[in-house]
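Reopening this one. Same input as before:
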Amino acid sequence: LEKLRLEKDLVGMYLSSHPLDQYQFELDNFTTCQVSELENLITECEAKKVKQKANIAGFVISCQQMTTKTGRPWSRTVIEDKGGSYELALFGKDHEAFMSYMQVHNAIFIEGVIEEKYFVKPDENNKDKAKAVPYGFKVKNVMLLGNVSDTYIKGLSLKITTSQLSPEFRDRLVKMIKRNKGSVPLTMSLYDPVKKWNIDFLSRKFKVAVTAPLIEELEQLRIGYSVLKK
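Same output, byte for byte:
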């Protein structure tokens, strides 16, 4: 009964909004494809025989830990975003390194590469005959999605014009920054369209968390911005 109640609550939550909405900034700026697009991208890379980086993000919706016939642990994890899901298998050192992130309901960011699943030694007797090797998604790094901005953003610069300046604007700006405290250095660029001068300065007092709510507030205040990535 409790499980049915939980499922009902989750359905209601998904109808009103998606849990990934709070990470829209990270999805827009750091992923290279949706989870649902990964299979087609693997097929495309295999057909063209090309290697390609791929960064995805989503929620862990299931995870099974198992053991191979030789007694080695491995795991099968399903990642889901707004468009669909992808099943990820981890073996050996990858399983050991990344398994702690594969907890149900975790929102995670995965850096990986699409490449041949294994190496085939060339046939010295028949060099023209190449064995076809299937392609797959190789995980290179995993982190919690909420930590991506602090990890990969070097700074945030706000673009403000002199015509925007007013006591009310300053008050709203300071409150917005205080609501979104974080570890990302904040700079401001003040531009005067009449005199054509521009002043840049670094805030020594405030640092911010660059998230979807902050970006939404910046847009509401009509403040331009640029993100400096590491």
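So the earlier flakiness isn't reproducible anymore. For the record, The chain is about 30% helix and 40% strand.
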